[in-house]
Amino acid sequence: MSLEDDLFAQRLRRTGEIEALGFRAYGQRFDASHTIPQILAHYGSKTAEELADQPRVRIAGRIQTVRRMGKAGFLHLTQSGERLQVYIRKDAVPEPDYALYEGFDLGDIVGVDGYLFRTRTGELSVHAEKLTFLSKILLAMPEKWHGLEDVEIRYRQRYLDLIANPESQKIFVTRAKIVSSLRRQLEERGFVEVETPMMQPVYGGAAARPFVTHHNTLDLDLYLRIAPELYLKRLIVGGLERVYEINRNFRNEGVSTQHNPEFTMLEFYQAYTDYQGLMDLTVELLKQTAIDATGSAVVEYQGTKLDFGNIRRLSMQEAVGNPSLRGHALVEAFERQIEPTLFEPTIIYDYPVEVSPLSKNKPSDPAFVERFEIYVAGMEIGNAYTELNDPKEQCRRFEYQRTLKAAGDEEAHQMDEDYLRAMSYGMPPTGGEGIGIDRLTMILTNSKSIRDVILFPLLRPEGEIGIAERLRGGDV
RNA sequence: GGGCGCGUAGCUCAACUGGCAGAGCAACUGACUCUUAAUCAGUAGGUUGAAGGUUCGAUUCCUUCCGCGCUCACCA
Q1: pLDDT confidence band for A476 (50 / 70 / 90)
Q2: Tens digits of per-residue pLDDT, A87-141?
Q3: Is A245:A192 a contact under the CB 8 Å cutoff?
Q4: Quick check: A16 and A122 in contact, CB under 8 A?
Q5: Which of A50, A155, A386, A473 would bridge with A46, disulfide CB 3.0–4.6 Å?
Q6: CA-CA distance, A4 to A2, in Å (whole number)?
Q7: Share of chain A above pLDDT 70, in %
Q8: Among A472, A471, A466, A438, which Cα is nearest to A452's?
Q9: Sign of CA pseudo-dihedral A185, A186, A189, A192
């Protein structure tokens, strides 16, 4: 029997001991008076004298450390990455409560009733008067000092990462702030949040290979969307003049530190504007999002300061420094020579029409389209353009994509007649933009890999885990 | 998909050129009523990712496979 099995069996037995003491190994509702962060916020700066009236508290959390000293002891409870010490004396709690405490394992979830005081060394602590058992841990916690380093376990068992590494919790809290900041800013400007199909009979709006699935009753192959773009623009035709969606896209392509097969995109469309209007909006959105997420428009990423309050704007030809380059050659030169060097937040505008099947031509030079992308830390984090709203031109673009597809380009855009029909009812001049939420979160949380900002990134499934057998073993 | 690298106790890591697989934390037993990486004394814990090969002898060298990371290609 391995040590882990041994430990597991031992703790399964301990659930019986907990119940023999009159507690529940898996407890019930527990109404705390405060969360641990609340206690630290309200009482963290109070002196021992100010706590002389012994403020009563009722708290719950996971046991992070235990220090036993015969007939008394200390433990730390954690909640939301913050911790509070509890002091337990044999003569200050009921007898069964002390026996319960003696059997605590690191990682158990417990409740404590008591009063606040400061220890001799000055640490704010709860003097326990009553304990409640809430949930028994059966497996071993990661090491308390080094935390959990193994990236594979961190991604596969994210809950362990969140328990052991408070920085990881912070990343996902920041991610939530980024999303809510963008929602708030868009709603302040009159944008309406919508949801469009994830399963689409025709995929479009980006150049990528899709995932395919099947609906049984309709006997219909469907694609998981690679982008919501064409549906959002149908809504613009319908008169929802400012719409946005924050949701998942699925692309059946490589996995890397910057790519996950499912990823989150903000797309928004605004009627009667163009890409210049979107550039101004983008600059405002990104600056405010950086402030809301990190407290500052200047963000440090991998040792370099990035100023979201000062976003450069360069045309692609200016960036490459060669006004004679056009078409695919220009894009290749840009992607090879310039893109990796764009560390400071930068807007690159005016793309060749060949790589932009849904963007509107520049009136002054139809070989280019009114399109820009946002680059930060060498990564593309956004893509925007004045939407092509001429159905005849759109039809020609689809035909061109069809020839690319026939020539073997798997990612060429599909012909979408339903979309052409919608556009034929008249689409107002419109600007549209997509921002990659995962990559933006990487930048604003100083994360090197996209897997660090996605709670459950895609990994190959692991083999047999064997926990069911061990849990059955506890019944014998 | 290609290249490079990694996989040792539950966790964090050692093990020189191929020569007895180790430490800290966690666990178990005992002592301890203000500790905080508690301390002190003791105990237990290993199919070295898997399978095969070379060798007197393999964690170490070779082959295949599995998983993960980095990177190139593709892509956002």
Answers
A1: very low
A2: 999 999 999 999 999 999 999 999 999 999 999 999 999 999 999 999 999 999 9
A3: no
A4: no
A5: A50
A6: 5
A7: 98
A8: A438
A9: negative
DSSP label of A461: P
pLDDT of residue A26: 96
Q: Which residues in range 305-364 of chain A are in contact with strand B, contact meaning CB within 7 A of any of its atoms?
A: none
Neighbour-count burial of A168, counting CB atoms closer than 10 A to its CB (0-12 exposed, 13-18 middle, 19+ buried): buried
User: Chain A, 32-61: which CBs lie within 7 Å of strand B?
Assistant: none
Indicate the average pLDDT of chain A. Answer: 93
CA→C1' distance for A54 and B15 (Å): 54
Question: Rounded to two decimals, what is the model's pTM?
Answer: 0.93
Kindly state the tokens that stand for A271.
């009627």
Q: Identify whether the C-beta of residue A141 lies closer than 8 Å to the C-beta of residue A162.
A: no
Give dist(CA A316, CA A339) in Å, integer.
10
Looking at residue A4, its pLDDT comes to: 67
A39, A43, A88, A136, A213 from A126: Cα distances, Å: 10, 11, 9, 22, 55
pLDDT level of residue A465 (50, 70, 90 thresholds): confident
Alpha carbons within 13 A on the beta-carbon side of A109? 16
Please report which residue ranges of A44-102 form alpha helices under DSSP H: 95-102
Q: How far apart are CA A388 and CA A359, in angstroms?
A: 5
Tell me phi and psi for residue A123, to 5 degrees. -85, 130
Is the CB atom of residue A120 positioned under 7 angstroms from any atom of strand B? yes
Q: Are A288 and A181 in contact (CB under 8 A)?
A: yes
Helix, strand, or coil (residue A88): strand
pLDDT in tens, A30-89: 999 999 999 999 999 999 999 999 999 999 999 999 999 999 999 999 999 999 999 999
Q: Which residue is nearest to nucleotide B9 (CA to C1')?
A: A3
